[in-house]
Amino acid sequence: MATRGEHAMNKKLSFATFAVVTGLMSTGFVSGTAHGKSIKCNKRQTTCEVRTKDLTIGDRVGVFNPDGVLVAVGEVKKIRSQKRTIKIKKRHGDIDRKDRIALLDTKGSLNSAPTNYKTYNEKNRSIGATAGYTYVGIAQGISAFELNGVSVWRPKGGLEYVVRGSFISGEGETAINENNDTSEATYGVSLTGFGGMGGIGYTMLKDKPMSFRVEGVAGLLYTQYDAPAAEDEGETAALNDIESGIGLVSKGTISALWNLEKIGLSFDLATGMYHEAPIGSFAAGLHHPF
Asked: Model's pTM, two decimal places?
């Protein structure tokens, strides 16, 4: 059983411990961990300080608890030697000494981000393929199947570079007057073409689940075109809007993109010129951003 003297000693020790803790708290800072270094925040946890070389002014950082749940978001405001002052922009809970800081995005080099943290990485490239229906406005119309391979690269600006490889194949009919007679004979018309196009595009709402891209491309396609000869000059001119060989093709496309985690769906509406004949198409496919 404790004596009266032991009780007095325990009270003195408790008071001393309380005094030390109170003294530390009165400095206005609590400690945690960031990048394996010490992080200190003021009492209201509106400003924190960390000793590290991995951050620069303008970097946006997140404070995460041991379970990986976001506790607070802040921005680096000052640099003093190896110390970085972080202004807490939004706090969802109390910052604990076991919490860690991770770089969310940066105005400096992404190479400055610690490799053991997942950092923001904007996906500025994508590849994909589409297949669909194309109408070629020649003769009485050619219904064609079109297959496209698409590559998109977005540099540091808003515009994107677009490259398309295309294959198209279809058939149609034309009616021709024979021997200046009032009667008409029906003949088949067919074409097969392949080649490449390049141009520029722009994606709206690119960071959203659903985004939209507009693009304009032009290029050369090699075409095998089969059509009957016509005696009437007007009919001959119309049938010659497309010729066998290499010719210019241009297209303007509006795409709706459904962006999933690793792969997405795309839906295209396009119009343009195939040699001298108008075309319109609808296609659907997949794209992979990276």
From this structure: 0.56
